[in-house]
Specification:
Oligomer: heterodimer
Helix content of chain A: 25-40%
CATH architecture of the largest domain in chain A: Orthogonal Bundle
Order of helices and strands of chain A: HEEEHEEEEHHEEEEHHH
Structural class of chain B: mainly beta
Helix content of chain B: under 10%
CATH class of the largest domain in chain A: Mainly Alpha
Number of domains of chain A: 2
Distance between the termini of chain B: 94 Å
Strand content of chain A: 15-25%
Strand order of the largest sheet of chain A: 1-2-3-6-5
CATH superfamily of the largest domain in chain A: Transferase(Phosphotransferase) domain 1
Largest sheet of chain A: 5 strands, antiparallel
Shape of chain A: globular
Radius of gyration of chain B: 32 Å
Chain lengths: 237, 425
C-alpha cells in the first residue's frame, strides 16, 4: 500500500475543494493566500513556505484570542503548508494611516500582544517580525499574525543563521550581534508602541511620559537591559 | 489513510488535525493565558489572606486594615498614586542596576537618589510624600569578598540633589579582577505602617591598565607609534586604560586616536621634548584622556590637537604653537588645559562644540596664551558652566578672548597685559 504524505494529500484536497481568493504576500521563502472552500464559503489563510514550521506545529494545540488558530500544518522536507484561521479586521498598519493611537489604546493593544507573545515565548519561540502589518485588530482584540520569521530559541546557537524581520522593527541582535532571543520581540514591541503613539521610530522621536520610558526600556541596545520577559512588560504597562 | 472525519464521515489523512472537507478542527486545544502579573510579595500576601479568610472569616476586615509590604527590583515602585524612582536625573528615569568600571584598589563613590513623582507625571512630589514617611533606611547586601561596598544613611535636602526625597552614597572598591555584584535595598516605612522595599543591583567591573614605554616597545617614529596604538586599541576592552610613555623625540606627524589614550611626554638630556609636528586628532572616546608634557608644533596651517565626537580631552604641561588653531573642540567634545602654553597660533584654543553631554573640568588653570591672533575663541559652548581661568596669563595676543556665543566666564583670577584690552564680551 502506498503511503501518501499528509502534505501531498492536503495539497490535493485544497486544489479540488478550495479556491484562491487573493494572493496576500509572496517572497522567495513562500506565499500567503486567502482561500475559500467552494462548498460552504468558509475562509482561511494558506501559507506555503520553505524552512522550519516548528512554531506552527506547536501552535496546533493552542487556543489564544490574540493568536490565529492554526488548523493544520503539513510538512514535506523543507516545504510547509499551513491552514490558519482568517482574521476578520484591519491591520494596525492600515489603522495607523488614519491617525495615531491614544496612550490607552496603545496600552491595551500592547498588553494583548504581550499575551500572544507569552504563548510563543513559553514554547521557546521568538516571533522576530513584530510590525503593524502583522497585527490585526479584530473588534476589541489585537491578533498577532505571521510566524514565518519565527524560530525556536536554542541557547547553544551563537548567532542567527539568517537576517529576518523588518528593518527598523528588528532588534540590533537580529542583525548578527548575538542570537535573537525573546527579548528581540520585546525590542520590536517597544518600537511598535512608539509608532502607535508618535508614528516614528523611537530613535527619531520617543513618546513622552511613562509610556515613553517603557518604550525606552524595551528598546535598549543591550538585550540584558530590556524587560526580561513580556510579563515584566505587562506589569510595567 | 484509514481515518474518517467524525463530523462529515469523509476519509481524511491519518495525521490530520483538521478536516478540509467540512472545515472542522479535530485538534484538542488548550487555552493559553498568561498568569496575571502580580508582584512576588503580593502573591504571598494574597495566599496568606485567602488562608486566613477561610479559617477566620470574621477577621477579614481586620486583615485588610493591616500594613502592607511592597517590593520592587526595577528601580521603580508604585504606591498610592505615587511613583518612587531610583534615578540620578530629573525628571527621574528608573535605574534597576548601577554598574561602573573601576580600577583595582581605588576608592569610588556614587550617589543613588530617590525621587517621588505622580504615577503618570514627572512633577516632583518630594515634600508631599515625605510628610507620610516615618523613616527611610538603605543597606547593602554583598557576599562577594573581592568587593568592598557600603552606603551612607539616606540624607534629605542634599545640596547636590535638592529635589530628591533622599539620597544615599555608595562607596566601593574592587580588590580582584572581574565582575562583582551586590544589592542595595531602600526601605521606606510609612506612617501607616506600610513598607516599600526597593532593591537595586550594583554590578561593578574591574578595568585593566596597559602601560607601554620606549624601553620595551618600538615607538621612535610616528608610524611605529600609530601602529602600536592601533594594535593595542583593537585588542583591549574599551573601558581599559592605555598609557603610553613617549621618548623625547620629534615625531614627523601627528596621531589619529579613536579611543582614550593617556600620552606622557618626556624631556631628553639635550632639552628635546616629545614633539608632534603634525595634527593630532582624537574622537569618540570613553573616559577622559590626557596628554601630558608634550609639544605640538605646527607651521602655520591646520589644527594642532583636535577633539571631536564625545571626547573629553585634557592637556597638562603641554606647548601648542604655530597652528591655525591650536586646540579645538568639535561636535560634542569638551577640552581642558592646565599649565599649558599656547603661543604663536592664529587661534590658541577654540570651542565649536554643540550638545556636550558632560563637562569634565571647567577650570583652565595656570596656562599661558602668548602672541596668538586670538587666544581663546568661543563659537559654541553648549552648557551653562562658566569657564574659569585662575592663574592664566594672556599676553601679546591680538584678541584675548573672543566670546561670540556670550558664554559665562570667570576671569577674576586671570592676568592680562595692561596695554591690550581683549574683547571679553
Amino acid at each position: 500500500m502506498r503511503v501518501i504524505n499528509i502534505y501531498n494529500w492536503l495539497l490535493e484536497v485544497l486544489k479540488e475543494e478550495y479556491e484562491t481568493v487573493r494572493l496576500l504576500k509572496e517572497s522567495p521563502r513562500g506565499s500567503v493566500c486567502f482561500i475559500r472552500r467552494r462548498e460552504n464559503g468558509r475562509r482561511f489563510i494558506l501559507r506555503q513556505f520553505t524552512g522550519s514550521g516548528e512554531v506552527y506545529r506547536k501552535l496546533l494545540g493552542i487556543s489564544c484570542p490574540n493568536l490565529p488558530t492554526v488548523h493544520e500544518h503539513a510538512q514535506l522536507g523543507d516545504e510547509n503548508l499551513v491552514i490558519e484561521e482568517f482574521i476578520e479586521g484591519d491591520t494596525l498598519d492600515f489603522l495607523l494611516r488614519g491617525g495615531l493611537m491614544s496612550p490607552k489604546e496603545t496600552r491595551e493593544i500592547t498588553t494583548q500582544l504581550c499575551r500572544a507573545l507569552w504563548v510563543l515565548h513559553s514554547m521557546a519561540a521568538v516571533h522576530r517580525d513584530i510590525k503593524p502589518d502583522n497585527v490585526i485588530i479584530r473588534g476589541s482584540e489585537a491578533v498577532l499574525i505571521d510566524f514565518d520569521a519565527a524560530r525556536l530559541h536554542k541557547p547553544e546557537h551563537e548567532t542567527d543563521t539568517q537576517v529576518l524581520g523588518t528593518t527598523g522593527f528588528a532588534a540590533p541582535e537580529q542583525y548578527g550581534l548575538s542570537q535573537s532571543d525573546t527579548r528581540a520581540d520585546i525590542y520590536s514591541l517597544g518600537v511598535l508602541m512608539n509608532v502607535m503613539l508618535t508614528g516614528q521610530h523611537p530613535s527619531k522621536k520617543l513618546a513622552e511620559g511613562r509610556l515613553g520610558r517603557i518604550i525606552e526600556h524595551c528598546t535598549r541596545v543591550n538585550p540584558q537591559k530590556r524587560y526580561k520577559t513580556v510579563l515584566h512588560l505587562m506589569s510595567a504597562l | 489513510m484509514n481515518r474518517v472525519c467524525p463530523y462529515c464521515g469523509k476519509e481524511i489523512h491519518e495525521q490530520s488535525g483538521f478536516c478540509p472537507h467540512c472545515t472542522q478542527s479535530l485538534n484538542k486545544r488548550a487555552a493559553a493565558k498568561p498568569p496575571r502579573a502580580v508582584p512576588r510579595r503580593a502573591v504571598g500576601v494574597g495566599i496568606a489572606v485567602l488562608l486566613c479568610a477561610a479559617l477566620v472569616l470574621g477577621l477579614n476586615g481586620w486583615l485588610c486594615s493591616q500594613p502592607q509590604t511592597y517590593e520592587s527590583d526595577t528601580g521603580e515602585a508604585l504606591y498610592s498614586g505615587y511613583r518612587l524612582c531610583l534615578s540620578s536625573e530629573e525628571p527621574p528615569v528608573p535605574v534597576p542596576q548601577n554598574g561602573y568600571h573601576a580600577m583595582l584598589d581605588y576608592p569610588y563613590r556614587y550617589p543613588v537618589p530617590l525621587y517621588v513623582t505622580p504615577e503618570d507625571g514627572d512633577e516632583l512630589l518630594t515634600d508631599e510624600f515625605m510628610e507620610n514617611v516615618e523613616f527611610v533606611t538603605a543597606g547593602i547586601d554583598c557576599s562577594d569578598i573581592y568587593m568592598s561596598i557600603s552606603c551612607t544613611e539616606p540624607q534629605q535636602h542634599n545640596e547636590y540633589f535638592p529635589n530628591a526625597a533622599a539620597v544615599t552614597f555608595v562607596d566601593f572598591s574592587l580588590v580582584a579582577p572581574g565582575v562583582h555584584e551586590a544589592e542595595l535595598t531602600w526601605s521606606i516605612t510609612m506612617k501607616n505602617g506600610d513598607v516599600i522595599r526597593m532593591r537595586q543591583a550594583q554590578r561593578h567591573t574591574s578595568i585593566s591598565v596597559y602601560q607601554y614605554t620606549a624601553a620595551d616597545t618600538d615607538m621612535g617614529t610616528i608610524e611605529e607609534l600609530q601602529s602600536l596604538v592601533d594594535r593595542v586599541s583593537a585588542e583591549i576592552d574599551e573601558y581599559d586604560q592605555l598609557k603610553i610613555y613617549l621618548p623625547a623625540v620629534e615625531y614627523a606627524g601627528g596621531l589619529r586616536l579613536e579611543r582614550s589614550v593617556f600620552l606622557y611626554g618626556s624631556i631628553g638630556p639635550d632639552g628635546q621634548r616629545t614633539t608632534f609636528t603634525g595634527p593630532t586628532e582624537i574622537s569618540g572616546t570613553r573616559g577622559v584622556p590626557e596628554f601630558t608634557d608634550i609639544s605640538f608644533r605646527g607651521s602655520g596651517q591646520g589644527v594642532g590637537v583636535r577633539a571631536d565626537g564625545t571626547t573629553r580631552l585634557h592637556l597638562t604641561g603641554c606647548r601648542v604653537s604655530g597652528w591655525e588653531t591650536g586646540f579645538l573642540a568639535l561636535d560634542s567634545a569638551w577640552i581642558n588645559a592646565d599649565e599649558t602654553v599656547f603661543e604663536g597660533n592664529e587661534v590658541g584654543m577654540c570651542f565649536d562644540a554643540e550638545d556636550t553631554p558632560m563637562v569634565s573640568d571647567d577650570f583652565y588653570t595656570n596656562n599661558t596664551f602668548r602672541d596668538n591672533g586670538t587666544a581663546v575663541l568661543l563659537l559654541s559652548v553648549s552648557n551653562d558652566t562658566s569657564l574659569k581661568f585662575p592663574g592664566t596669563l594672556f599676553t601679546g595676543n591680538d584678541v584675548d578672548i573672543d566670546n561670540l556665543c556670550a558664554h559665562p566666564l570667570d576671569l577674576s583670577e586671570a592676568a592680562f597685559d595692561e596695554n591690550i584690552q581683549g574683547d571679553k564680551r
